[in-house]
Write a structure and sequence with these properties.
By secondary structure, this protein is α+β, with helices and mostly antiparallel strands. The protein is built from nine helices and 14 strands.
Length: 338
């Protein structure tokens, strides 16, 4: 942890209290010059640290800047110890962690970015990732699981994200099959899970779970092609103080609670409970792979169906208008207007 991160944690943990440069230096076993340089750096980043003669330094307000030190400290209090890395700009957090894995990284870790120049979503789509308005996060994981279980991490992530956002925001958050998190009728998050498996051992070598969450609406609004469907967690009326760090902690706390017992599916009922497509008539846009139907008939040429439920494998159980039923393992759907 850098001196700047140590100074920030000390002031953050004692918000509103004054500490002299000498007191900080003694507590952190650093020089007063190091403390002064750290404070100046934090002020430049937007932290409202006031310096008062004969009293010292005090943190009045924390900006919404991603802080690895803050996230690690908060997670440690929950008994979760994960290395957290923050980058200013990357092409894609998933891509960076792929490189980590290629270089032999064996730890589970988390990478966040303030901005992505090439954020990616499912089916080759891009994920709009402007600076400072979202949470762009990927986890590098090494689960003891079969390759087919890796896909369930997407379901796990959606459930954890919905719980985390609801915990911080206090509003109901829902999930649209397969992995989109929705709030107030709009999509606020997307998830992309990638991995590598050993053909010889039949086990996963690693999995990278990437998630993007729209925290605020971008200054110039969302691009026209996603404007009708994209939403944000917080409105402009909410003070932007440390919200992204707090949301990161909430998400990772719920994610790790599920992941620590993976591949047990203790997240599945949470996922089902938040699904807003069960019992609805839907249009199947891209059917993907068909599961086994109760009638033994594949329905990939059918377009409209009633959603009956979600299976233990997170397949969508649908009934077509001719009465046949099917389990869809992937694809996209839209809600049909009544």
């Amino acid at each position: 942890m850098t001196i700047k991160e140590q100074v920030l944690l000390l002031l953050e943990n004692h918000r509103g209290e004054f500490f002299s440069g000498q007191e900080i230096a003694q507590q952190l076993s650093v020089t007063r010059a190091g403390v002064w340089k750290a404070v100046k750096g934090l002020q430049k980043e937007g932290y409202a640290i006031e310096a008062v003669n004969n009293k010292g330094y005090v943190l009045q307000k924390a900006p919404d800047v991603l802080s690895a030190a803050f996230i690690e400290k908060e997670l440690a209090q929950e008994g979760i110890f994960l290395p957290i890395y923050v980058e200013k700009l990357v092409d894609s957090t998933n891509n960076v962690l792929k490189q980590y894995a290629a270089e032999g990284e064996k730890r589970d870790l988390v990478l966040l970015a303030e901005e992505q120049s090439g954020g990616r979503g499912r089916r080759g789509r891009s994920f709009y990732s402007p600076e400072g308005s979202g949470l762009y996060l990927s986890l590098l994981l090494h689960p003891e699981a079969e390759p087919e279980e890796g896909a369930m991490l997407t379901t796990l992530t959606a459930a954890a994200a919905a719980k985390g956002v609801e915990e911080i925001l206090g509003e109901e958050v829902q999930i649209k099959w397969v992995n989109d998190v929705w709030l107030r009728g709009k999509k606020i998050s997307g998830i992309l899970t990638e991995g590598s498996s050993s053909m010889e051992e039949g086990k996963l070598e690693y999995v990278i779970v990437g998630i993007g969450i729209n925290i605020y609406e971008p200054e110039d609004g969302f691009p026209e092609e996603i404007r009708d469907v994209a939403g944000a967690v917080f409105t402009d009326s909410i003070p932007r103080e440390n919200l992204r760090n707090r949301l990161t902690v909430a998400f990772l706390k719920h994610f790790m609670a599920y992941y620590q017992v993976f591949p047990a599916r203790n997240y599945l009922e949470e996922y089902r409970r938040r699904s807003f497509v069960i019992g609805k008539k839907v249009r199947i846009i891209t059917p993907g792979k068909s599961g086994r139907t109760q009638m033994g008939v594949e329905g990939t040429d059918r377009e409209h169906a009633l959603v009956l439920g979600i299976s233990d494998e997170c397949y969508l159980h649908v009934r077509y208008e001719d009465g046949t039923e099917e389990l869809l393992s992937s694809g996209e759907i839209s809600i049909r207007p009544e």
